[in-house]
């Protein structure tokens, strides 16, 4: 009986020691982690990341980039129109939370770019015959951009975002 009690005490003591050692090890690892947890995130870092994401969004929804990425031979013009506008909306919605980290002017510029690009796609599509191919719609969009480079805002918006980000780094 005493032998069983002694074995239980030794076993219990060993388990308590192992538990204490693992807990101490976990506590050391937590202290050694980089300060990236919610309470320790640098607001400047969040703002810069937001500007970076919005510049990427601006490039992704720029009509020439969007057209080259979404081009699918054999698709109907109406389907291409819907695909282009849906992609712009989806990209924008994916980044909508970034507005809390940037100036209202920067966010307005990004929102205006989204709206302008959707408007351009819909306008060009409305002037084309109903049975136009997606490839023809894309060609018309690109020709319009080449003829009127000032119609596209993406370079201006990217410059505004870049300027504001650089101001933060000073």
Descriptive report:
This protein has 170 residues and is an all-alpha fold. The chain has 2 domains: 1-33; 42-169. Helix content is 76%, strand content 0%. The chain contains 7 helices and no strands. Helix 2 (43-61) runs parallel beside helix 5.
Distance between the termini: 76 Å
- How does the major sheet shape up? none
Strand content: under 5%
Secondary-structure element series: HHHHHHH
Number of helices: 7
How many structural domains?
2
Mean model confidence by pLDDT: 85
Could you name the ranges where pLDDT drops below 50 across 5 or more consecutive residues? none
- Structure summary, number of beta strands: 0
Class inferred from helices and paired strands = mainly alpha
Shape: elongated
Portion of residues within helices = over 70%
User: What is the alpha-carbon Rg in Å?
Assistant: 28 Å
Oligomer state equals single chain
């Amino acid at each position: 009986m005493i032998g069983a009690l002694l074995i239980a005490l030794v076993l219990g003591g060993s388990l308590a020691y192992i538990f204490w050692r693992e807990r101490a090890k976990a506590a050391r690892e937590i202290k050694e982690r980089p300060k990236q947890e919610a309470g320790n995130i640098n607001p400047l870092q969040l703002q810069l990341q937001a500007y970076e994401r919005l510049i990427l969004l601006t490039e992704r929804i720029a009509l020439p980039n969007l057209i080259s990425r979404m081009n699918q031979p054999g698709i109907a013009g109406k389907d291409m129109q819907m695909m282009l506008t849906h992609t712009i909306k989806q990209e924008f919605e994916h980044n909508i939370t970034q507005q809390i980290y940037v100036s209202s002017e920067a966010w307005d510029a990004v929102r205006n770019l989204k709206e302008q690009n959707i408007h351009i796609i819909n306008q060009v599509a409305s002037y084309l015959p109903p049975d136009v191919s997606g490839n023809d719609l894309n060609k018309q969009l690109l020709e319009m951009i080449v003829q009127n480079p000032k119609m596209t805002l993406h370079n201006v918006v990217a410059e505004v975002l870049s300027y504001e980000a650089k101001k933060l780094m000073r």
